[in-house]
Amino acid sequence: MKWCIHIWLLNVVKPNTAERHQTYLFSQIFWLSSKVEIGSFVDRISEMNSYNKYLPSLKDKEGSPTKLVCGNELITQLEVYNIILMAHPFNLSSFFWAVKRTTQFPVCVKHSMQICS
């Protein structure tokens, strides 16, 4: 069934949808702290990331170069972590890094974001 959905998506949406989805995640997300709790926000970003594997990529198009990277793969936890931090207001993300210090490495998004709640 997944293959049928993938073929249908290839015929219905543009072939660069996965790449456009990733660009949207990295550049257009902003957290409204007065309207959405941080836990719900993190869950939504993770959910949006999970959709990427179903979207058509330029690599799926016939005749695409062999060196072209497949764009419909999930982004890493570190990238999700950075998306969430970039979505915060600057003063809150600065506070977050001041508390966490640069010697700590983000591994789990949910565990790391508990400081903001």
Itemize the secondary structure elements and their pairings.
Elements: H1 2-12, H2 17-27, H3 38-51, H4 77-87, H5 90-100, H6 109-112
Task: Tell me what the structure shows.
The chain is mainly alpha-helical and 117 residues long. The protein has one domain. It is 53% helix and 0% strand. The protein is built from 6 helices and no strands. The protein has helices at residues 2-12, 17-27, 38-51, 77-87, 90-100, 109-112. It is elongated. It starts with a helix and ends in a 5-residue tail after the last helix. The mean pLDDT is 80.
Poorly predicted sequence stretches spanning 5 or more consecutive residues: none
**How many angstroms does the end-to-end distance come to?**
40 Å
- Globally, the shape reads elongated
- E-strand count: 0
What is the chain-wise order of helices and strands? HHHHHH
Total number of helices:
6
Class per helix and strand makeup: mainly alpha
Biggest β-sheet, characterized?
A: none
Quote the beta fraction: under 5%
Alpha-carbon Rg, integer: 17 Å
Q: In which range does the helix fraction lie?
A: 40-55%
Mean of pLDDT: 80
Counted up, domains total: 1
